[in-house]
Records
---
Amino acid sequence: MSKTLPSLPTQADDMRMQMALRQIDFGAAATRAMAPVPAMAPNDALALRRQDWLMEVQERQRALSPYASGLLTAENLSGEDFLHGFYAPGRPVLIKSAIAHWPALTRWTPDYLAKTVGDAMIEYQGGRTGAQDYELKKEKHRRRAPFRQFIALARKGGNDAYLTASNSAANGPALRVLEADMGPIDAYLTRAPGMLWIGGEGAFTPLHFDLTNNLLAQVTGTKRVILIPPSQTRRLAHRSHVFSDLCDITDEARLTLHPQARDVLRYEVLLSPGDLLFIPIGWWHQVRSDSFSTMLTHTNFHWPNVGHESYPAG
Ligand SMILES: O=C(O)CCC(=O)C(=O)O
């Protein structure tokens, strides 16, 4: 399901005028370290079912209002409106054309990238074809090549070779030259380089959620993102770390194995050059490139983003 509404019904300024805030001094909790979640006792399965029930009931209630449940698209969204309307509530938003003015938008073709970065050695994820668990077993798929050679692979398309955020620690010095083509995203982020993704048509990231809030910034090409709210987790065969055994919610063969996922609530987003997409912590997503694509992921928000520190990884 994909819904686009023209704008937020209330801006932060209106909210302040219309409502008297009842202060409950929860502010300190946002910066305090979270206590670890206690391990479950065997008979806690019922408590878990009740928690799933509550999330499902709340989701149905949100569906009464497109403003409460729809995937909103915004333009010129201020930092304050982003915080109140999306970051704090943990609600995704597509922010159109926010980085459309970056020089990278017109420059980052495969030819330009190959010429600019040249033969500097970079790391990417390779050997992915035929491996279902290439994201879970990231380490096994690390490969190194001169950047120009990697671009030739990405140009061919397919899912075998993909430069992902998990390679960014290794690629900092080689790719730094591209930073001159980017600009700041000061309304929401502190200044720090994003993590680059470069892949060909058909590059695919399977269904998972992240342990941080993420801001995706699309530069070249388009991507199709499927977003699923955390309330649907019990239908998503969540067994390994942050991944779903479904891998691809659009794959009929996978749905036959996991029929409970057929009527899951989902949103489809087309991410185009210049767009930002906010994906809150815990929201499931899978991403497919429609064409040669470059994108940056950011986690350096002005506000705390530390859920990963207390995740019960098992
Ligand atoms: O663009 C992609 O292939 C995946 C992006 C993603 O999952 C993320 O940034 O969390």
---
Amino acid sequence: MTPKGTQEIRIHIAHLQRTSLIDYPGEISAVVFTQGCNFRCPYCHNPELVDPSQFTPPLDQDEVLSFLSTRREKCDAVVISGGEPCIQPGLVQFMKRLKEMKYLVKLDTNGSFPDVLSEVLESDLADFIAMDVKAPISRYSHVTRCIFDPGAVARSIRIIMRSNRAFEFRTTLVRELLSPEDVLEIGREIEGAPCYVLQRFVASKHVDGRFLGASSFSDEEIADLKESLREMVGRLIVR
Ligand code: SF4
């Protein structure tokens, strides 16, 4: 499948969900889960995609692409999720292969690789971007347990806002890490976004086992936030 004489850089795929009715808005999709992430959000419910000691042998990329090439009539879109897909050096090539198959492509990202996002958008490789906004910019390292340049997240927000693609920003509401005032601060940082998703935190398996006892915001707090965020963003969705 790779042209003779060229070496394809591969992405590490941990898992392929063959059919999903919920991961690409309004479309039937397949979901590719990539392995590895630069963040260590303690509430992450995919530790097997984040903690290298829990990695399983990756799937064969050619087999995944070959399978997807047979599914085009049954499936409209491919979602690339993780982990963090943008740490994969072969991401752009992989997305090109999906676009050659005429799939709609959605990229789920934590927004810490603005240069990759730029390349993906400028090359017309994504039709939908979903970016997690973990915290107000000033509190990023606290929530992601990772030292990095939070300015990268601000750049990603600007790049996505200026693109004319469909997109959503989303924040997981974990009381132990964020306050309602933090979420309002995020609202100010993404002001003008057409869609903002507040995700209730649900305890399951986590990167940090101590977060099994963590909690989400109350219904009353979420209702107050909806009211306050109304002026800042377009559609507000609570999941
Ligand atoms: S929740 Fe955090 S640690 Fe988990 S995959 Fe997303 S960015 Fe990485």
---
Amino acid sequence: MSLLEIKNPDDAWIIHREEVDTLQDGICDIYVVLDAISRHCLEMETSKDLPSSSQILELIKKSCSKANTTPKKIYILKKDPLAEVVQAVCSELKITFEVATKKDLDPFISDFTNSFKQFKSGKNEVLDKNDDVSQEEIDAFIPETYGPCPCASGKKYRFCCQKAFKDITFAMCEAQDGHLDKALFYMKQAEDKIGLTAEILCRYAITWSFFDRKKTQEFLEKALVINPNHPRTNYILGIESVEKKDYQSAITYYQKAIDNYPIEDKFHLNETYNNLGTAYYKLKNYQMTKESWEKALVLLPSDKMVANNLFQCIYTNPVVPKELRTISPFIEKFIKKK
Ligand SMILES: [Zn+2]
């Protein structure tokens, strides 16, 4: 039975995870049990860390008594961090278990997620309102809660920088607006939450970059002491090198950032490949420019800027050797859409 064949009320339920940022406990997981047919929420469980298998067992049992039935099947998102736990609980309860893709589940959970979104404020709403930002870019920008942290600590985002996400975002905005005191206030809050990590030191460096470049340099050096491979620090050092017109150093820094960003972090990888390509372009290394920009486009196909750059500076640029002025086969499908 596939999701599309669900016809009877007790055919299938979906276990779905949302997260919410609470004042009291910070970010919490909310697991809900949804009836696939009525799309009603039967039960939910909120917990600071991922619920345990006994909590999930309890959640399903409560849903069964509320619905007065046991479902034939329970679906969960393939990438859900609790997929294995739910599978084990289902087998204990003799309920068929299956994972599904986001695309398959969306029609069944969209009502719930839409109403849920209205309760939430913050990054989603801000980004949703911005018409210039595609859904693809929003998805790429926000790290997966249980995916690897973009700071490359090796920890999951949830247990690393996510706790400081809001404070860091506020700090960056205040710094950009020229409010040093407010920016430092938010940075201190972020620091109190996750400690003086390479990521925090790097963010202090970015904060200071609007006010005092010497301080920026000091903080970048401190960040490298804690983690010489910290991707964002290397990325910023690449930008600093470009400003000094030292493109060779910039390439080294950008490459190090690329080597260390988690492969899932398409947003930052796209950004860094973009800059890497530009540094190569300054050195008239068109082969590497093309390679870098094409990789950037594959990572984020909606990136119009890099597509334009490829056209103007490579594919149609008479200065570029003729054999390089071709669209690589793997890139064609992204270019033709334009
Ligand atoms: Zn982190």
---
Amino acid sequence: MSLRTHKDIVILGAGPAGMSAALFLAQQGIPCTIIERKTFPRSKTCGDALSGKVFDVLKQIDTNILQEFSRSANAIGCWGIKFIAPNGTEASIPFQQAFNTHPGTLPSGFIMKRVHFDHYLYEKCLQSNLITLKTETEYTEVQRTGIGYQILTSYGEMIDTKLILCADGAQSKFAREQGQIHMEAEHFSGSIRGYFKNVSGFEKGNFIELYFLKGVLPGYFWIFPLPNGEANIGLGLRSDYISKDKVNLKKLLYEIIESHPEIRQRLQGAEMVGTLEGFGIPLGSKVRKISGDHFMLLGDAASLVDPFTGEGIGNAVFSGKIAAKIAQEALSQFKFEASFLNSYDQAIYKQLGDELKLGRKLQNLSVYPWLMNFMIGKARNNTEFKRTLTAMFENVDLRAKFRDPRFYLKLLFNKA
Ligand SMILES: Cc1cc2nc3c(=O)[nH]c(=O)nc-3n(C[C@H](O)[C@H](O)[C@H](O)COP(=O)(O)OP(=O)(O)OC[C@H]3O[C@@H](n4cnc5c(N)ncnc54)[C@H](O)[C@@H]3O)c2cc1C
């Protein structure tokens, strides 16, 4: 077997971004090779909440996905969000697709451990003879060549390619070395999560719960229900605050569990399953250059996580879809230079730019406990605010609203 091959498109990393790009390419009849360092099934440190955006994108690959997830023993439907303010004020907001509106209504979001969600995508990739998935294979180096890039793998293979879709996550070597994307503490979060069983006190409808607590702002502590009586419990905090206040996330998580009266009560008799795992979250609070000669950056490698909600899977699969579309155009016109691939940046920020900006604004406001008390108090009876907060998880398009100054006035003063 020759150790030197040529592939038109190589995808680095088989997470939601990389695998959705491969599936959208296959839908257009375009073959690709994915290089993934782990073997499946594999876990990924995450909160495991899958928002409406994830399904709006993936429905275009599998029209039955919502039905499939509703039947899956590994997923539970999520019908809303509960926000808890530093002073204990709670606002439980059902999604627009309300629980039990009529029989057979499907939820717009789900919670499913990443080991299962990523495996679902992996199996979809295996079903396509256009997708070559090389697992347990790490890319170790990339070099620019006359036609594009040469990729060196841990097996000593050399793969020449015209186009790289880089989707290897928050610690992407390629994004750092070729895309010049470097970790900036004020646009990055540190986070930690653990699986627990026997947690009590969940809302009907499996609401995800975001606790905005002093010491975790701007960020939050979460409890997300999972199937089989388990829960994903964790917290995330912006990295500049972690450094400034010398925060030990593990210690902070245990302190909250032990000292917060309501959380302590809910976790009495609970038991951790496995260990606490930490990982970084690259926030989309800054517009970056996410393509260049012969490459596009996807998902976390492009820092597309919502700065306020911490939601990254929806934007990762969306970037996979857009990258596949631009890749098809690049292949058919034989144009792989940065000026052509810049249409990827434009399409991504046209769709996601406004909501990422709003996410940054809300994140900045959430620094102040009194403001979070005010905002969550407001969310209890302000329809506009309720809709805005849940729409960010449901994938309701708010772009037109964001541009209308009256929208912000209504947010503050409307009680209807
Ligand atoms: C604690 C935590 C909680 C979160 N909670 C949520 C949540 O509830 N909901 C949500 O939507 N988002 C959440 N996120 C964000 C979400 O996890 C990411 O946005 C999402 O995983 C991004 O997908 P991706 O495909 O870009 O990258 P990843 O999922 O990170 O996938 C990257 C892939 O690349 C592979 N790889 C890396 N390096 C190499 C290499 N050198 N060679 C080959 N392969 C390589 C990795 O093994 C991996 O399979 C959370 C993140 C964290 C850390």
